[in-house]
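note to self: dont lose this again. the chain is below, predicted strucutre after it. 141 aa total, dont forget to put it in the shared folder this time
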Amino acid sequence: MRYQVIFQFPEAYFPTLDDLIAFEAKLIASLPKTCDVDGYDTGSGTTNFFVYTDSPLAAFKNFRTYLGTNQVEKNLRVSYRDVDGDAYTNLWPFRDSRPFDIMYPKGVDPFSAKSKRSIPKRSPTGVSKLETPAADEWPTQ
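---
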């Protein structure tokens, strides 16, 4: 498989291990057979589910169709990268150019009110609203 898709939630989104495992089972059931769910990782304030696929956009669209409730999407970031690459491309929220990573530096919470994104009303010419390159790092304050 060519791409790794990461579905990222705040660590506190799943209060118990049973909730986490139940969500992973729902994720596996919602994705096409061409996707391979490789498990999850919890730490540094986030919970990440790793999916390998040749079509990240199709995996994301299936996820939204079956699991994309308003409650889930408010607490979700989705990004993908080449399996051998380091640069992430954000899929959700649309037009989100904030940096994406599996582990964030100490003091950086991608889900906090301070990190809210400013999303332009339109994507730049030639850029899909569905796929936005993630910035390399968080802006310094």
